[in-house]
Each structure stands twice: as structure tokens, then as C-alpha cells.
Design goal:
CATH class of the largest domain in chain A: Alpha Beta
Shape of chain A: flat
Radius of gyration of chain A: 25 Å
Largest interface: A-B, 136 and 118 residues
CATH architecture of the largest domain in chain A: 3-Layer(aba) Sandwich
Distance between the termini of chain C: 51 Å
Largest sheet of chain A: 7 strands, parallel
CATH superfamily of the largest domain in chain A: HUPs
Largest sheet of chain C: 9 strands, mixed
Chains: A alpha/beta (427), B alpha/beta (283), C alpha/beta (434)
Oligomer: heterotrimer
Number of domains of chain C: 3
Radius of gyration of chain C: 23 Å
Number of strands of chain C: 17
CATH topology of the largest domain in chain C: FAD/NAD(P)-binding domain
CATH topology of the largest domain in chain A: Rossmann fold
Distance between the termini of chain A: 66 Å
Number of domains of chain A: 3
Structural class of chain C: alpha/beta
Chain lengths: 427, 283, 434
């Protein structure tokens, strides 16, 4: 155990394990002894008094502190825990906010419905749907077909167009009336815009972009797992004392449940007394051509992704051939967009789109952290790269070491030869 | 017009390297930078102030070292900078963070009423995009997220173009409003030397919980309903097979295809039976 | 920019920042430019500093939270062949107590940042992220300030100090220094190996924040004229190996090959075993010696540190000379400003101070050392081989009498190179450093 120059045994941070939650900082009694730097806690050894409180507070074992001392009675997690427990009581059901686009429920909402079903079954409770819109009864029926037990619907012209405050207040009101213990939303543009409003009105805990949801049966808590620090660490987050426990999930992270048109459920209409404000007012909507008719890389079952190592527009047709052969599309890394070879809508990664195709084929993609977080949900990963040590090659299920100009033509030839037999089997 | 830009200092994730042996990030010694989306927000604020008259105040919540991010914003033309730094703020989740920022904006409101708050769409370290909507809600301001163009600010109203699912919309709302902005809104200027020098010399106001008032139990850990229960390494993907194609590419690629078509036949037939427009995981 | 300064300094390394601290301490209005995002961002070096020189700039440096890696209590000198080597070391407890901080290791990125922060606290305007692209001059050619790469980026100053390093584009552009020739610089690569502090303690037999430096000579640089170093940091080891840039071209070797080989040497490998490589960087060292030093001053300007090719190659002292030259430049400028005369004549005092100090005296002493090494490649080839043979024979116990072994060693040494050559080597070596 390290000592400072005064001979005092002090605590030490393991940067690789620190998740930057700042609990240690909140616990540290000496103002100058700790700070955050680059998202990691640091201790100033000469100032540290070696009290060990940071060690007690750390949820991730990122602090080394071995000195034997009188263990202080652990303080309650937060003030007013008893009072909060009371507010937890009486909340039941797993709710999903159902997004509506042009009269249809968004796919992500059905994906969440499938997850909600699973969670509700564990908890022995109901799946609830929160639905706002105008003339959306068919959507409510779809929700039931996807596993919802009770749809709470507020059908009003006021909800024709999504507006943050209007929707936020309405969903918050639904929560106050229905008292669900969990509320799931899609991490879409709308879902992210809305969830912050609802959580703030309700003072509820919100965890964004979860990739895993489960239940701690003993404490009846939602375990919300999300990647942090660019996907290198998974953190499981809980919300002890506030209800509903809110979580957003990106599209295509959860599996779409089987639709059962014969499924029975209940539709309850809520009158939230919402009045459409005159403002803000949407003056104009311009649909994006590429998302209506063009390529949507998030929906392709197979994605051939061009990286810096294959950033040469002369060979793009060859990669498009490979994609077409498998019924897929061509995406790319950020460098390829920056080089002007493909448009931004094709970009995979943190600043681009999150994709989860059945087969991801990375061609010359080195696999920067920012890229990996956008494609880690892919079922099978094939990587083609000259550098066997590239991060993408490390995570790939199949790593082909070699020049893509050598590899891809042979792949195309080989796949062409095999396709007829495979199609014959499957159809 | 008084414009407030809220910024965050974040670890420079582009600098973060992966340890090839353990497949984890090497995080010690990573530099801190101003969140790139927030620089766009500050620039947008300065442009509005330049066009319509007014000033920009930059606010951040963070450790004392976050003052370098504030100075960078000053060099872009912001007039004042406030650092919200207090041990009481440590451990804030998005709810507590947006509450803290709201208290600071309230304090500014008392002396110089705020018309517009601009935030980056999201911070690159967390990607949650929740602080902006949270702040708008605490303040009860008009909330306009994912802004790609500020069309007009006039007579107590603001008109912007924003990115929404499936397209863009032009939307008009009342001031005071809170915008969260996309990177493509505007490029960030390269500071002139006199502005850079001003930013280096200017005093940064540091405010703690007592200075901005508010309910103490809404700050920091106490005001944060969420907490980390545990962390773990993500499950390794595959345990992949490596094919060295350099020696005999024809044969090796044939080998690969044989393995792939044999082992992944179910995925392949699923993929090939869909016509490409179906949902990727529909079964 | 309208505002005028007394002194503009280009480069916030040890030379520039030392000067800035002293100037600001005397109330001189100083602006310090750094091209990196922050001072230290563009920096790397073996990371050894000397307390005595630092104390002349900041007497209270120890109280200012100086980011020290390890306090050096032992210096080792290794003479290696490919397979083995000699180790000569000196350790003294006095360096942990009375003479603490005589030599210590630092991470230069952290140190430079800290150092510039001390200057800022003394009143220097430290301007990072800004490249000085040219110098301002009046009609007579006198330097009147600098031009930066930013809009409204001209700054006038009575004196400009060039301290922007060995590959100073400014010195070349303005003609204040001759273009650096490949044989006048060394290309060094550094790798930092991450190891727990306890492991470093154990492997070097130290504790309590103390450490060891090792200079490495011999056949480790592929027969080129070059050296290696191995420094202990608090929880890592810095390995650095470099050779003359001209030799790299002649020998067709790659820097990373050198360091890989160095890492595998039987005397190095156990020290870094199990460690992970944290960073790998390359840089230049000005090792041309005394004869490549440019004129150190002129009308309205001075040159210090690596920009002035100040580097004591045999002792691997660079930052020391940089700090001292920066300090002397500042002392000169303070007096010149008091006189109200910053002409070449008035600044000539800098040359005088330097000539009388250890900086130029040491440089002069080793004037012939560079050419000596350059012309005697046997130091890096035949000699280490002969030495290895000698070491092995003397230590191997195999029934052969010691007298017989001496004969063998002598014969082998003669085989490697002639007796006359050894004598010549000794003679010219002595002349080079006397």
C-alpha cells in the first residue's frame, strides 16, 4: 500500500476500473485531496489523509485501500430513504411509451414491448402501453398484438404532432395516474427528447441507451446495463428510490417479438385534459429522401462497411457487388465520410448510426472505439484487414488477414458459387 | 439579448487507446477537452449575439480544471464564464446536473434575464442527450432539440430547423427557449489572437451550491436517483477464427467460405430469405 | 494585436519557461507562445532534470507541487555487447537526503505544463495553441516582435527569445541558424513501459520514491554512433535509444528495430518483463556540439536551449543547458531593458555569460567528442566484442589458469583490432574530452 512523504498510508485509484461516477469525491472529506481528470478520479497523495471513505464509496473496486481501521457504519445511500420507499410502494407494471410515426407504431416500441413482457412476467405484473396521438386506436391494437396487456391511450387532436413539453407533461401525468414501476422509451430522436422531460417532471431516475435490462428479484429493482467509456466497460445502473425507473433503449438492441394478432388486451382511454398550445408550432416538415426511398444502413441484414483501409472510390462498385450478393447495403467509417467517398447517412459509429446487422463485414475498418460502439450488436462479424492486430480483427468472429483487393473478389466468386444451393435449401 | 451556453469538459475519446491484450481502454492520462457539440453551441450563441445584439455567458459544472474549457469558449467570443464547482455537486446524474445548471441560470435571470440557452446535443463521453431537455423542463423554457439551423430570432420568438425522425422540421417557439444543437449547425471559429489573450486573462467566476441557492438535497449524489451497482467487462465477441490469406489466398478464402457457410447456415438462410428491406432480426 | 510586450518568447519548454519565470519575477511584461494545445503537449525527452538549475529559477520548487517521477540516487553506466555487458554504478544515500533532487525524472508533458503554470502565476501571459510563423522586423532588420498564425496575430516586443526547439522552423526560416544537417542531430525513440511502482522498486532495489538512471553504450545501436538510456519513473520505465541521423541513413536501420532489440537485451529484458508499452515516440536531439551553435543573439533577439543546439551529448544533458541558457538570456534582457537598449551590442552580454558558465565550457570541452565517435565506430563494434570476450573468459571457471586467460583475452583483442588502433583511439578519445 502506497504511503505519502508524511508516511501516511493513502488510497490509490486504478484508472482502468474507474468509471468517473464521482462517488469518491462526494465522500472525500478533504477538499483538495481529490479531483477528476479526463473522466477519472485522481488522488493527491500529499493531501490525502488516508481515511478510506473513498474506498467505501467506490462501486467498482477502483480504489486500493488496505489499511486496517474501524469500519464506520455504512451511511444510508441517500437522505430520506424511508420516505422514498413509501413512494416506491404502489407502483406496478412495466410501461412502454409507444412512438407513432405517420399513424404507425415505431418498430423500437414493439421491440421494447417484447422486453417489457419478459420483465413483467418476472415481476408477475402487467405490460402497459402509453400511447399519445390522434386516431391511434389501430396502434393500440398493434401494441396488444406485440404483447401489451393494457394500453393507456390519450387520443386527441392536440397530440397530432409531437411537441416536447406537451408530450412530456402528458406522459408524466399518465405516470402519476397509472403508477408504473418501470417506463421504457426508444432512444430515438423523439424518445431522447421526451425522456428527459418526463424524468425531470417526475424527479425520476433515467438511464439512457441501455443494452440490457433485467430484474433484481430480491429487491424488485430494474437492472439497467449500458456500455460506458466507448463500450469498454458495461455498467449496471439501478434506481433505488424513485418510480418509475426509466430507461431508453436504442432501436435494434432488443429482439422484435412475434406478432400475435389474436392476442387479447385492454384499451383504456385517458383524458389528460391536454390543450394544444399555439406554440411552439411546426411550420414545415421536410422528409429526408434517403430515409424514405434510399438506403437505410440500420435496416440492412448484411452490412459491408468500408474503412480507411479501403477508402478508394474506384473499388466501391466491387464492395457494392458483395453487399448486393447478400441482399445487404454498404456503410462506412467516419474517415470515409471525411474523405468524401460516401455520405454521412452511411456512417456507422458513435457520431453516425448504430447498426446491428445479422452479418457485418468490415473491409479495411481498423475499429476505433467510436466505430465499435456503433456495431457491437452485430450477430456475426467478418473483418478483412492487412493488420491482424487491428481492434476490429480482435473482436471479429472471422478475421481475414490480407489485402481486400485480393480477398473481396475471391469472396464474391465463392459466394456466387454457393448461393444457388443455399437458396434451394431455404426456400 | 442574454444568451447562456452550457458546456461540459469531457475526456478526449478520440485519444483513448485500446490495450490490445486486455481489450480495455487505456484511460490514465487522457486529456480533457471541451465537448465538441458544446463548442458549436457557444459559436451559435456568439453568432446570434453578433447578429441581433447581446452577450453570451458560458456555464459549466465540473472540477476546477474545467476552467480551461471555459477559457476556450471565451476565446470564441463569449463574454463571461461561470464555473459551478463544489464537492456538493459530485456524483450528479443527469437529473442533478440539469437542476444545478437550472439554479445557475435562475441566478443569472435575476440580474440579466436570459432569452436563450444553448447546449450541445449530447456529450461525447456519455451520449445521453438528457441534460438539455432536463434543464428546459426545470426552467419551463421552450425546448428545441437537434437544431441544425437557427433561422430567426425576433420579437420574443425563435424559429429553427431541427432534425427529427425521418426528416427535418421548421419550428417556431416562444422565448425564452433552450436549444440543443447538432455539429452541422455551424463551424467553430479559430480564435483571433486578441480574443485568445482576453480569454486567458479573464477572471472566471466560481460558484458553489451556497452561491446559487436551491434545495441542497437536489445536488450531487443526494439529488441523483440513479447509481452504478456494478461494472463488468463486456462479453468477448466470438473468440474469432483467423484466416491468413497472404500465402495461398484462393485456398484460404475457400476454407473460410466453407467454414462460414457450414457454421452460419441458419443466419445465412435467414438473411437471404429476407428481401433486404425487412427488419434485420425478424424471424 | 495592439498590445505591446517587453519580451516575446517562442516555445514553452525548459528554456523558454525558465526565461519567462525570471523575467516575470523582475516585473518584465512577457508573453510566452506555445504551439501545442498546452505546454508539454508536443514534448518528449528522457525526462531527467536537475534540481540545482531549477532552483535558480524557482527556489521553492519543491513546495510548488512539482510533478516528480523519481528522485535519482544511483547512476549506472553500462557497456554492452549483443549478449552481455559491464555495469558500473554509483549509489549514494546523500542523494536521498542532503542532496535530494540533485537529479530527478519527470514526465515532460506534465512537467512542462506545471512549469508554464508557475510562469503564469508569476504574471507571464502563456498563450498555448498558437504557432509563431514569422518574426517582425523594422527597416534596419532589427527584430521587433513575432507573427502568429492567428488573425490579428502580430505582437510587438522589445526583445524576442527563440526557444522553439531543435527543429525550429523559425530559426531556419529567419536564417538565425544554419539548416540542421543530419550528422548534427540524433534521432531517438522512446518507449515508456508501464509497471507497478512496487515492481520498479524491487527490480532497481529502491524505495520511497527514489530511482535509478542508466546510460547505455556499446554495441546496442547496430554499430551506429548512438546511445541508450533507461530511466525509472514512478510506475513505469522509460527506454530511449538513439543514433546519429546520418548513420540511420547509411546503415539503413529503422528506429523501432533498435528499440525492439534493446528491449530484448539480456540486461534490459528482465527489468521490463511483464510491462506494457504505454507510448512510443521519436524525437531529435541536437548533438552537433559546440561547432554547430549559432550566434546566440542579435538586434532584438536571443536564442536559447535546443534551438541554439545546446546539448552535452556525452553527459546526456539537454534540459539543464536549456534552463541555464534561458535563465541567462532573461538576466541579460532584464539589464538591457533597464538600459533601454536591446541592440545586438547590449545583448552581447548573453554571449559573455554563456561563455563563462558551464554551458559553453562543457560544450567546448566536448567539442571533439561528436566527431571522435563519428570516426571511431570501433567503440560501437569491435571494442564491445573484445570486452565481452574478456568478461566471459575471466568469469568462466574451466580449469584454465588466469594468466592463460589474460593471454587469450589479449590475443582476441588484437584480433578484433590492432594495438596501434587502440592507442590511437585512447589518444583521440582523451583529446576529445580533455
Amino acid at each position: 500500500m502506497p504511503k505519502n512523504s508524511k508516511g501516511r498510508e493513502i488510497a490509490e485509484i486504478i484508472p482502468a476500473k474507474c468509471i468517473g461516477c464521482e462517488r469518491c469525491l462526494a465522500a472525500c472529506p478533504v477538499p483538495e485531496a481529490m479531483t477528476m481528470e479526463g473522466g477519472v478520479a485522481i488522488i493527491f497523495p500529499e493531501v490525502c489523509i488516508g481515511c478510506g471513505r473513498c474506498f467505501d464509496a467506490c462501486p467498482t473496486e477502483a480504489i486500493i485501500f488496505e489499511r486496517v481501521r474501524k469500519k464506520k457504519a455504512a451511511k444510508p445511500e441517500a437522505a430520506g430513504a424511508a420516505e422514498a420507499a413509501a413512494s416506491v410502494d404502489g407502483h406496478k407494471g412495466v410501461a412502454v411509451f409507444i412512438e407513432v410515426y405517420q399513424g404507425h407504431g415505431a418498430e423500437v416500441s414493439w421491440e421494447l414491448m417484447g422486453k417489457a413482457r419478459e420483465l413483467a412476467d418476472k415481476l408477475g405484473t402487467q405490460v402497459l402501453g402509453f400511447l399519445l396521438g390522434h386516431n391511434v386506436k389501430p396502434v393500440a391494437e398493434e401494441a396488444i398484438a406485440h404483447g401489451c396487456d393494457t394500453v393507456y391511450m390519450a387520443d386527441s387532436p392536440a397530440f397530432q404532432v409531437y411537441l416536447s413539453k406537451l408530450y412530456g407533461r402528458a406522459v408524466a401525468k399518465m405516470c402519476q395516474q397509472v403508477k408504473p414501476e418501470i417506463l421504457l422509451l426508444g432512444a430515438t430522436a423523439m424518445g431522447r427528447d421526451l425522456s428527459g422531460v418526463v424524468a425531470t417532471i417526475l424527479h425520476a431516475g433515467l438511464t439512457a441507451d441501455c443494452t440490457g435490462l433485467d430484474i433484481d428479484m430480491e429487491k424488485r429493482l430494474l437492472l439497467m446495463t449500458r456500455p460506458t467509456f466507448g463500450g469498454s466497460i458495461m455498467a449496471t445502473i439501478v434506481c433505488q428510490n424513485q418510480r418509475p425507473q426509466m430507461s431508453t433503449v436504442r432501436p435494434r438492441v432488443m429482439k422484435l417479438p412475434r406478432r400475435d394478432p389474436g392476442r387479447k388486451g385492454e384499451i383504456r382511454t385517458l383524458d389528460l385534459g391536454a390543450q394544444a398550445d399555439s406554440l411552439p408550432q411546426v411550420i414545415e416538415f421536410m422528409p429526408k429522401a434517403h430515409e424514405v426511398g434510399g438506403v437505410d444502413i440500420t435496416k440492412a441484414p448484411v452490412l459491408v462497411v468500408v474503412g480507411k483501409g479501403a477508402c478508394d472510390s474506384r473499388h466501391l462498385p466491387m464492395l457494392e457487388d458483395l453487399a448486393r450478393l447478400l441482399g445487404g447495403a454498404v456503410g462506412c467509417s467516419r474517415a470515409v465520410v471525411q474523405a468524401g467517398m460516401l455520405p454521412y447517412v452511411r456512417q456507422v459509429g458513435q457520431t453516425g448510426k448504430t447498426v446491428a446487422p445479422s452479418i457485418y463485414i468490415g473491409v479495411g475498418v481498423s475499429g476505433a472505439v467510436q466505430h465499435l460502439v456503433g456495431m457491437q450488436g452485430s450477430d456475426r462479424i467478418i473483418a478483412i484487414n492487412t493488420d491482424p492486430h487491428a481492434p476490429m480483427m480482435q473482436i471479429a468472429d472471422y478475421a481475414l488477414v490480407g489485402d481486400y483487393l485480393e480477398v473481396v473478389p475471391r469472396l464474391i466468386k465463392g459466394i456466387e458459387a454457393r448461393l444457388p444451393s443455399l437458396k434451394g435449401v431455404s426456400s | 439579448m442574454h444568451i447562456v451556453a452550457c458546456i461540459k469538459q469531457v475526456p478526449d475519446t478520440t485519444q483513448v487507446k485500446i490495450d490490445p491484450e486486455t481489450n480495455t481502454l487505456v484511460r490514465a492520462g487522457v486529456e480533457s477537452i471541451c465537448n465538441p457539440y458544446d463548442l458549436v453551441a457557444v459559436e451559435a450563441g456568439v453568432r446570434v449575439a453578433e447578429k441581433y445584439g447581446g452577450k453570451v455567458t458560458v456555464i459549466t459544472m465540473g472540477p476546477p480544471q474545467a476552467d480551461s474549457a471555459l477559457r476556450q469558449c471565451l476565446s470564441l467570443g463569449a463574454s463571461e464564464a461561470i464555473l459551478l464547482s463544489d464537492r456538493a455537486f459530485a456524483g450528479s446524474d443527469t437529473l442533478a446536473t440539469s437542476y444545478t445548471l437550472a439554479q445557475a441560470v435562475n441566478k443569472l435571470n435575476a440580474t440579466e434575464p436570459v432569452s436563450l440557452v444553448i447546449c450541445g446535443k449530447q456529450a461525447i463521453d456519455g451520449d445521453t442527450a438528457q441534460t438539455g431537455p432536463g434543464l428546459a423542463t426545470w426552467m419551463d423554457y421552450t425546448q428545441l432539440t437537434y437544431v441544425v439551423e437557427i433561422i430567426e430570432v425576433a420579437d420574443g420568438f425563435i424559429t429553427v430547423k431541427r432534425e427529427v425522425e425521418g426528416g427535418t422540421e421548421v419550428i417556431r417557439g416562444k422565448l425564452p427557449a433552450l436549444l440543443t444543437v447538432e455539429l452541422e449547425l455551424n463551424p467553430v471559429r479559430y480564435a483571433t489572437l486578441p480574443e485568445l489573450v482576453r480569454s486567458l486573462r479573464q477572471e472566471i467566476k466560481v460558484l458553489g451550491a451556497k452561491d446559487i441557492g436551491g434545495e441542497p438535497e437536489r445536488y450531487g449524489l443526494k439529488g441523483s436517483p440513479t447509481s452504478v451497482k456494478q461494472i463488468f467487462a463486456p462479453p468477448p465477441h466470438g473468440g474469432g477464427k483467423v484466416f491468413e490469406t497472404a500465402s495461398d489466398s484462393d485456398k484460404v478464402i475457400e476454407d473460410f467460405l466453407s467454414t462460414f457457410f457450414e457454421k452460419e447456415s441458419s443466419i445465412l438462410s435467414e438473411v437471404l430469405s429476407s428481401d433486404g428491406s425487412d427488419h434485420a432480426q425478424e424471424q | 494585436m495592439k498590445e505591446a510586450f517587453d519580451v516575446a518568447i517562442v516555445g514553452a519548454g525548459p528554456a523558454g519557461t525558465s526565461a519567462a519565470c525570471i523575467l516575470a519575477g523582475a516585473g518584465v511584461k512577457t508573453i510566452l507562445f506555445e504551439r501545442g494545445e498546452y505546454p508539454g503537449a508536443k514534448n518528449m525527452s528522457g525526462g531527467v532534470l536537475y534540481g540545482q538549475e531549477l532552483a535558480r529559477v524557482l527556489p521553492d520548487f519543491a513546495e510548488r507541487k512539482l510533478p516528480i517521477e523519481r528522485n535519482i540516487i544511483e547512476s549506472r553506466l553500462w557497456y554492452l555487447s549483443k549478449e552481455g555487458g559491464y555495469n558500473l554504478g554509483y549509489r549514494d544515500a546523500i542523494f536521498a537526503t542532503e542532496r535530494k533532487h540533485n537529479v530527478f525524472t519527470v514526465g515532460r508533458a506534465r512537467f512542462d505544463r506545471w512549469y508554464a503554470e508557475q510562469a503564469r502565476q508569476k504574471g507571464v501571459l502563456v498563450v498555448p495553441g498558437t504557432v509563431v510563423v514569422d518574426l517582425l522586423r523594422d527597416g534596419s532588420g532589427r527584430v521587433t516582435g513575432v507573427v502568429t498564425g492567428r488573425a490579428e496575430g502580430e505582437v510587438t516586443a522589445q526583445v524576442t527569445l527563440l526557444a522553439d526547439g531543435v527543429n525550429s522552423p523559425l530559426a531556419a526560416l529567419t536564417g538565425f541558424r544554419r539548416e540542421v544537417k543530419p550528422e548534427h542531430v540524433a534521432l531517438a525513440v522512446k518507449e515508456v513501459i508501464d509497471l507497478p511502482a512496487e515492481v520498479v522498486d524491487q527490480r532497481f532495489g529502491v524505495s520511497g520514491g527514489n530511482g535509478v538512471t542508466t546510460e547505455v553504450l556499446g554495441d546496442i545501436v547496430g554499430g551506429m554512433n548512438g546511445v541508450g538510456v533507461l530511466y525509472t519513473n514512478s510506475a513505469s520505465i522509460s527506454l530511449c535509444i538513439g543514433a546519429n541521423l546520418a548513420d540511420f541513413a547509411t546503415f539503413k536501420l529503422k528506429p523501432y528495430e533498435l528499440i525492439e532489440e534493446f528491449k530484448q537485451h539480456p540486461m534490459v529484458a528482465p527489468l521490463i518483463a511483464g510491462g506494457k508499452s504505454l507510448e512510443y515516440v521519436a524525437h531529435w536531439l541536437p548533438e552537433g556540439g559546440y561547432d554547430t551553435i549559432p550566434r546566440l543573439y542579435g538586434d532584438g533577439y536571443l536564442i536559447a536551449g535546443d534551438s541554439a543546439m545546446l546539448f552535452n551529448a556525452p553527459h546526456r544533458e539537454g534540459s539543464n543547458l536549456a534552463m541555464a541558457s534561458g535563465r541567462m538570456a532573461a538576466e541579460t534582457v532584464i539589464e538591457a531593458l533597464e538600459r533601454g537598449d536591446c541592440s545586438r551590442k547590449s545583448l552581447a552580454d548573453y554571449g559573455e555569460r554563456m561563455a563563462q558558465s558551464f554551458v559553453l565550457q562543457d560544450m567546448k570541452k566536448y567539442r571533439g567528442f561528436g566527431p571522435f565517435l563519428h570516426h571511431h565506430k570501433e567503440i560501437f563494434n569491435e571494442l564491445p566484442r573484445a570486452a565481452t570476450f574478456a568478461g566471459r573468459e575471466m568469469i568462466t571457471v574451466n580449469g584454465v589458469s588466469k594468466r592463460e586467460k589474460q593471454k587469450l583475452i589479449f590475443r582476441n583483442a588484437r584480433k578484433e583490432t590492432s594495438l596501434l588502433k587502440y592507442l590511437k583511439l585512447l589518444w583521440s578519445g582523451w583529446r576529445a574530452v580533455k
